[in-house]
Amino acid sequence: MKHLAWGTAVSVCLTTGAAASASTRDADAEERNAHCLREFDATQRADMESFRDFDAATFRRVHADDAVSIYPTGERFTGIDAIMAAAANHFTRKYAVWSWTELNRRVDGCRSAVITYDATYDIPKYEYHQRALTVVTYVYERGRWQAVMDQGTLLEISS
Description:
Order of helices and strands: HHEEHHEEEE
Structural class: alpha+beta
Shape: elongated
């Protein structure tokens, strides 16, 4: 009887300990996920606002070295250097107006994220207007979020 009671006590302790350990792991995973979401929000905001605000250094920093950008016109640029070269006039002339509305987002923990925007690019000086459906993909690598791919689909243009 003593052995049965001792065995039951050990079993209860092990079960309780395992449950507590699982609970701690779940809480740690939730905190890590919340941390990743906060970091993602900051990176995504920096990506969009840096382009709007002509901040080339921040825009470059939030992109992976091997990022790919496909403009609504169909032009494709591979690598952050090529992307920056293609956007050079935007960052130096500073007369375009970039705006966006987020349509949806999908964040997969600390792995990847995709956001779809209804975006407009206007150059009032030239009465130019472009509206595109833009999809941006981010990955979490080496402890930080990076934009790796964006593609725009032309919805309307006037020039």
